Amino acid sequence: MKKYGEMTREELACEKKAVLSEYGKIKAAGLSLDMSRGKPSMDQLGLTESLLHILNKGSDCRTEDGIDCRNYGQLFGLKEARELFSSLLGIPAENIILGGNSSLNMMYDTVARAMLYGVPGSDKPWCRLDRVKFLCPSPGYDRHFNICESLGIEMIPVDMTPTGPDMDTVEKLVSEDESIKGIWCVPKYSNPQGITYSDETVRRFARLSCKAKDFRIFWDNAYAVHDLDENGDVLLNIFELMRGTENEDMLYYFFSTSKISFPGSGVALLALSDRNLEATKKIIEAQTIGPDKINQLRHVRYFTNAEGIIDHMRLHGMVLKPKFDIVISTLRSELGPAGIAEWTEPKGGYFISLDVADGTAAETYRLAAEAGVRMTRAGATFPYGKDPRDRNLRLAPSYPTKEELSEAIHVICVCAKLSYLNKVTTD
Amino acid sequence: MKKYGEMTREELACEKKAVLSEYGKIKAAGLSLDMSRGKPSMDQLGLTESLLHILNKGSDCRTEDGIDCRNYGQLFGLKEARELFSSLLGIPAENIILGGNSSLNMMYDTVARAMLYGVPGSDKPWCRLDRVKFLCPSPGYDRHFNICESLGIEMIPVDMTPTGPDMDTVEKLVSEDESIKGIWCVPKYSNPQGITYSDETVRRFARLSCKAKDFRIFWDNAYAVHDLDENGDVLLNIFELMRGTENEDMLYYFFSTSKISFPGSGVALLALSDRNLEATKKIIEAQTIGPDKINQLRHVRYFTNAEGIIDHMRLHGMVLKPKFDIVISTLRSELGPAGIAEWTEPKGGYFISLDVADGTAAETYRLAAEAGVRMTRAGATFPYGKDPRDRNLRLAPSYPTKEELSEAIHVICVCAKLSYLNKVTTD
Questions:
Q1: Interface test with chain A among B48, B56, B72, by most A beta carbons within 10 Å
Q2: N or C: which end of chain B has fewer CB within 10 A?
């Protein structure tokens, strides 16, 4: 089969007829498939069933230090839970704050605190500045961008490369502009590409030289242990790299068990330097008496140790890998020959990034939605929801069944082709 | 026995000798008793044991609408949980937002949101104003005051009366000063007095006329169903009173199950008008995907309905009532005859407010601590930790056993006497 770009006008017209006919059939089938968000499937949720009742009676709720998790207290979370994540992530337990079920909440709160109080190194609260800007490697995670938009923080897109954000640009911008106060990073299996930052990228982050004395890296390591199989990517431990250096206060590190145990009832984590921790403590002492410790203890009892989590993640990988394979093989067989799209082939995480032909992502999204397949809204992976080339789509293979997924990706491929063909035949 | 105030110099010296001797004995006993916070006791925590494992398997986690609580979603919390609290509190379910385990967190966040964004009626975010002031009925809840202090909100103490805050003063101040943006209220079994606002007080709040267009009442109904027995106080439903009036946006209403189920793992609630809810929704959409729904469902399954909660609270009352009785009877028998103190005798809640002689609260606190009895820090019940008359102490009878409590209150009575005697004999 010829690539679309090499087809004659007649060949394109003929192909369009065939694709339109296929699209008609799909629409007639009346599908209803949702692959808009990175939600674990029923099979995955079932993997941690006994977490629900592992604490069975009151006496189960005591920690090794005799703390009754049912009662008030423990502002930073349970000691043994902090130690569990310490050994999993290679971060000292005393630099870890555990929260409720949402790391997004911890990220929002961390930015909101900076707005209201500033951070160590700030002259004043960020809300007192005329402008606050964040660098946003793009395509990126829409909810990170939403936080900025909500708090009136100006977003500057930075290109993503196969080794992470374009570090030449990052270094240049942060060294010149004092109003740039932060950058969003999903360093392992980035959302949506599934890119893992190279060692060199992580090292360049660790030694970043910034004009702003209160610049912060928001390091959302959401997929730290979320490999599809034993050939997963390896990410350098930035916390260890920065610890004890003059840059150590520059890092806010986030993690959660949302995609390890339950999204609706996991444990979220914020790791930070001693100085950041001390400043944060003063504020969250006014905010809460402590997080849900019973749920933290459930996690400790269920997983026991870091190995327990790693073992458990193999089970998630076994559910997810065949789904990623379906997406990749369908994209290869259906979009590959047409030569109108590129996509990533990640070794973990929750997403695949699909770049269709320039100017056709929104239309592909619309056509798919009309045919009953819901994707993440086109544009959502860019600041302000604006994809400058209108080409990026985020595919989230986890939630649908394999059968649904095959069907959904086929629909998306047909819609991507049709959008292209509509565009070139009317141009 | 003569009142201290009527004693001669010689009688006082004699009494001081006796009290000093008793204090010496107490110190020698080497006690270690903590009645500093309103923590439920082990007996109370045991009342909801089966809440821990009431959701036993994955299929238990589905709501009546088929929502899987283990997964993402439901920004405002579970429908059936909102309905449960709706029928308990007499507030429409659609005006209820459920959060995690901490209503303090919801209060802090509500004030922080007002600082960052303003509220409906604001010209600008409160953090852009030169001054923001809150009225603080005092003595009051230290953690409310901490929120203000943390966020740089100026606190204006308002006297508490047996029917609630001094409403003449409240009405006067809010009608004159545009920078007064809020007031903290614990309307039922106030912390620390255990006072319940009279119908007239609640009605005056509901029709408050404020200079600031964005004034808010922070109505922390923490002890809404926390009666010691069937003779509990009755509080007017302010949400119902204000609903549909021009003042309806003035109310933020808080509640939690911290002292119904588990302090470390309850469900917190914020109720607000349609307009406030819409404005809040836009912001918390950026903050989180949703609260811990599994824990909310546990509460629904465990309590079933409002009656289930009311029935359950009788059991708490049966544990707490004898403890309150011990405190009251000890104060009556040990401090009553001396005539140097006043205290409240609440019908519910978690605290008893003890006013010792002017200028002796801090010393009483210090002497008790030295004798091994930890109370809430003297002054903590006032803004900035400063009790102008240095006389108020908050007694929290819930956590110690009855035996410990008898001992602790005796110690406090001895220390209150000794502080008085030290003062008058050196003056």
A1: B72
A2: C
Condensed to tens digits (0 to 9), the pLDDT of residues A180-212 reads 999 999 999 999 999 999 999 999 999 999 999
Binary contact (A262, B53; C-beta < 8 A)? no
* Contact (CB<8Å) B286/A116: no
pLDDT in tens, A201-245: 999 999 999 999 999 999 999 999 999 999 999 999 999 999 999
A409 contacts A417 by C-beta, under 8 angstroms: no
Per-residue pLDDT of B341-376, as tens digits, reads: 999 999 999 999 999 999 999 999 999 999 999 999
Gap between the Cα atoms of A353 and A351, Å rounded:
6
In chain B, which residue's Cα lies nearest the Cα of A70? B264
Interface of A with B in 261-300 (CB under 8 A): 262-265, 282-283, 285-295
Residue A379 CA to residue A98 CA, distance in Å, equals: 33
How far is Cα A215 from Cα B47, in angstroms, rounded to an integer?
A: 49
> Does any CB of chain A come closer than 8 Å to the CB of residue B426?
no
Residue with tokens 């045991």: B46
Cβ-defined contact of A263 to B72 (cutoff 8 Å)? yes
User: Per residue in B244-264, pLDDT tens?
Assistant: 999 999 999 999 999 999 999
Give me the pLDDT at residue A427, please: 59
A208 with A293: CB under 8 angstroms? no
The sign of the torsion formed by the CA atoms of B168, B376, B324, B399 equals: positive
Instruction: Give the bridge partners for B22, in sequence order.
Output: none
How many whole angstroms separate alpha carbon B366 and alpha carbon B351? Answer: 20
Query: Which of A48, A155, A288 to mutate: most B Cβ within 10 Å?
Result: A288
Residue B40 is classified by DSSP as P
- Give me the sheet containing A392-395, strands edge to edge: A342-343, A352-355, A392-395
The domains of chain B, with CATH numbers, are 4-45+310-426 (3.90.1150.10), 63-304 (3.40.640.10)
Supply the pTM of this predicted model. 0.97
Under a CB-based contact definition with an 8 Å cutoff, are residues A356 and A393 in contact? yes
**Is the Cβ pair B287, A262 closer than 8 Å?**
no
Q: What digits encode the pLDDT tens for the residues B9-50?
A: 999 999 999 999 999 999 999 999 988 899 999 999 999 999
Q: Is A132 on the interface with B (CB under 8 A)?
A: no
Tell me which residue of A76, A117, A69 sits closest to A298, measured CA to CA. A69
Q: Which residues of B345-364 are buried (b: 16+ CB within 10 A; e: fewer)?
A: ebbbbbbbbbbbbeebbbbb
* Beta bridge partner(s), residue B160: B165
Residue B334 CB contacts under 8 Å (≥ 6 apart), including other chains? B409, B410, B413, B414, B417
